[in-house]
């Protein structure tokens, strides 16, 4: 009983405090089906503008939708809180009319027409003709028209923008989301930004649109929602739930006073609960750029997010979905989506996305060594090809590339191709670049050697031409236009260690590493601190007795072998294989299980001295940027083109690199642009997932975990969710 009396007293005090609100004579209106802003204004005999002024979340007539709760100022005056009144007074003090003009209202003239004629706002007209707040505009009415000082158009234009300083961990997408603009608009406002990458440096200054009448930090755009009052709900508990004062609820819903308090079933409007998830940057969110013709349903399905959560994080969606809009998503969603530089990528089937109007212009620069090969002497030419790796690689690569050109032609895409023999000579490369016109070239594939590659990259950079390095994984120089198609050692190592960390339980881990592989040794130890270190003698062999003691008879043994010496690989694999064999043949011996791994796979493991049977018995597992060709259509096409010859590894790589470039150029004839939106692509034996390291270039992160199994090499982690692009 006492609680009820206190609640009643509180309600009476609140109603008395809100009494001045009722004196202002406002009403609320729930928009019904078929009603428009104009029809509602006519019903209450007020102007549409006054309704918009009283409902600041409504930006235009199109935003007045069914079930929207509107406040109607019955005397035509918009509701103003103290902050608005203070702001108006400040504006009035800052900009005052320099004089007034007299205007006699003519037949059929309207307030809107007068504001357009004299370039003033409706508020300015009424402020100096107060009778218009309560009386309609009538013929022969004499008005005083304020004349304001002229503003320099350039100065006024600058006032519409502000300088924004980029904060750490912010991206173009996070800033575009914060300001409610598209990334394209951001680039238009800041033409100095590089269009070929997305890099932003902390501290960099950008020109961005200033929210009207306020700065971004102080801007408060309220978006309201309809709320049906449940049983036993009080103003106090409602205010606490939505985090707003009770007097604000009453001011938004004047009918509460008229009805004598909050009633069950009453429909009121309340500010939507604000998202307070922290700063908008790459540490807290990932981002998605809306594409043309997308709808909310499809976006929620693709991004695996509920409609309510999407709208909560992106209140601007209340005003409609627009192409180019940047949406923010919870950081944890990255685990289920393909994300690149904090941007969610659409899964695009490049074959289905070809634009046949694109006509790429491709240049190959490879060392065919025509200066050395005598084609008239077939025997000597064949011998030279066998003995020169660069020549074998170039010819194999190019034969695969020709199959890719045949394939893209069948898809309806025309390609202009030029091929140059670099002769593995940097001087020859300079001569070619000086002689040939590279204008309009879409991409250059090659050269192989680092020196010629650097020369081509520098010249091509001046013309914004991308260069694809067929076998290089890095360069001593920084080239923002080079795509390194072979993953770096650190990428392969991290891939391998991440895989092993995921499958590791309580295995006994031993590291065998020579002095030239200290980085691999340290990386393994950082992932597995309990690992044992095997003693290596003179970088050539194991201290056998000490090593055998390190093998466990109770747990499975995982042995990392890090070396590039074939003899050491052959010796260690033989020792490990013997340990497994001894355990199997001797019934009294406790079984010893050994598996062998490496994080730095190289030619030593493929040397003829290394037994493939031993590797298979040890289930040898390693990271690789290459896997055995899984594309029968390519193998068949290659065999048909070259009279039954099967493609080698170089031919597969030539096909894959060239096909990847051609499909991306056929999708959008700009490899830099395409790289922003295309994630992992896979072909016959290679995958490509380029990461833009800004000034250093684009680096491929796609690699595979391979394992010897029954004398076959198989991929351990096939990506079932990502289909090949062929």
TrEMBL record:
Highest taxon above the source species: Bacteria
Signal peptide residue numbers: 1-23
Pfam families tied to this protein: LysM
Secreted keyword on record: no
SUPFAM superfamilies noted in UniProt: LysM domain (SSF54106), Periplasmic binding protein-like I (SSF53822)
Boundaries of every LysM domain copy: 27-72, 162-208, 225-270
SMART domains referenced in this protein's UniProt entry, alphabetically: LysM
Keywords from the named record: Signal
Full protein name: LysM peptidoglycan-binding domain-containing protein
Organism of provenance: [Muricauda] lutisoli
């Amino acid at each position: 009983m006492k609680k009820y009396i206190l609640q009643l007293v509180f309600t009476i005090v609140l109603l008395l405090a809100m009494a001045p609100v009722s004196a202002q004579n406002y009403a609320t209106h729930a928009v019904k089906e078929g009603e428009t802003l104009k029809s509602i204004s006519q019903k209450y005999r007020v102007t549409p503008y006054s309704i918009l002024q009283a409902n600041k979340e409504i930006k235009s007539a199109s935003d007045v939708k069914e079930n929207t709760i509107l406040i109607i100022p019955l005397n035509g005056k918009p509701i103003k809180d103290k902050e608005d009144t203070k702001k108006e007074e400040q504006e009035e003090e800052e900009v005052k009319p320099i004089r007034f003009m007299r205007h006699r209202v003519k037949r059929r003239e309207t307030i809107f027409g007068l504001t357009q004629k004299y370039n003033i706002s409706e508020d300015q007209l009424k402020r100096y003709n107060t009778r218009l707040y309560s009386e309609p505009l009538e013929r022969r009415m004499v008005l005083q028209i304020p004349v304001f000082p002229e503003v320099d158009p350039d100065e006024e234009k600058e006032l519409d923008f502000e300088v924004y300083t980029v904060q750490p961990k912010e991206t173009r997408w996070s800033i575009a989301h914060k300001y409610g603009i598209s990334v394209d608009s951001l680039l238009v406002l800041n033409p100095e930004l590089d269009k070929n990458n997305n890099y932003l440096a902390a501290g960099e200054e950008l020109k961005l649109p200033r929210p009207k009448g306020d700065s971004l930090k102080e801007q408060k755009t309220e978006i309201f929602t309809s709320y049906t009052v449940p049983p036993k709900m009080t103003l106090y508990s409602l205010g606490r739930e939505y985090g707003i004062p009770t007097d604000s609820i009453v001011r938004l819903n004047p009918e509460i006073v008229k009805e004598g308090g909050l009633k069950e079933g009453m429909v009121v409007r309340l500010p939507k609960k604000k998202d307070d998830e922290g700063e908008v940057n790459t540490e807290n969110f990932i981002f998605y750029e809306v594409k043309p013709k997308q709808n909310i349903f499809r976006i929620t399905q693709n991004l695996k997010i509920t409609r309510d959560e999407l709208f909560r994080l992106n209140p601007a969606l209340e005003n409609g979905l627009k192409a180019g809009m940047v949406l923010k998503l919870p950081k944890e969603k990255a685990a289920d989506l393909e994300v690149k530089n904090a941007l969610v990528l659409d899964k695009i089937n490049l074959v289905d996305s070809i634009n046949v109007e694109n006509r790429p212009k491709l240049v190959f620069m490879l060392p065919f060594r025509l200066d050395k090969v005598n084609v008239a002497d077939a025997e000597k030419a064949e011998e030279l090809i066998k003995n020169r790796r660069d020549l074998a690689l170039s010819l194999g690569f190019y034969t695969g590339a020709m199959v890719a050109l045949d394939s893209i032609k069948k898809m309806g895409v025309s390609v202009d191709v030029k091929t140059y023999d670099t002769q593995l000579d940097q001087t020859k490369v300079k001569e070619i670049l000086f002689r040939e016109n590279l204008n309009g070239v879409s991409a250059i594939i090659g050269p192989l050697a680092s020196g010629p590659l650097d020369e081509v990259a520098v010249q091509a950079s001046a013309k914004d031409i991308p260069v694809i390095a067929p076998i290089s994984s890095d360069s001593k120089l920084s080239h923002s236009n080079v795509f390194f198609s072979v993953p770096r050692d650190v990428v392969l190592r991290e891939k391998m260690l991440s895989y092993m960390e995921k499958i590791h339980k309580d295995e006994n881990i031993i590291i065998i590493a020579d002095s030239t592989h200290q980085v691999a040794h340290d990386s393994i130890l950082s992932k597995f601190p309990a690992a044992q270190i095997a003693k290596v003698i003179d970088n050539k062999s194991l201290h056998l007795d000490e090593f055998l003691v390190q093998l466990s008879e109770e747990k499975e043994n995982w042995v990392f072998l890090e070396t590039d010496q074939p003899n050491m690989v052959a010796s260690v694999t033989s020792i490990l294989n013997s340990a497994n064999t001894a355990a199997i043949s001797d019934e009294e011996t406790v079984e010893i299980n050994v598996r062998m791994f490496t994080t730095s796979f190289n030619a030593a493991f493929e040397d003829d001295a290394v037994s493939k049977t031993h590797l298979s018995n040890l289930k040898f597992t390693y990271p690789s940027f290459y896997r055995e060709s899984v594309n029968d259509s390519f193998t068949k096409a290659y065999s048909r083109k070259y009279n039954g010859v099967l493609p080698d590894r170089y031919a597969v790589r030539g096909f894959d690199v060239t096909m990847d470039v051609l499909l991306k150029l056929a999708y959008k004839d700009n490899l830099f642009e395409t790289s922003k939106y295309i994630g992992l692509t896979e072909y016959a034996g290679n995958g490509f997932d380029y990461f833009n390291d800004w000034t250093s270039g684009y680096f491929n992160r796609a690699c595979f975990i391979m394992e010897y199994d029954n004398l076959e090499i198989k991929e351990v982690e096939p990506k079932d969710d990502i289909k090949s692009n062929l």
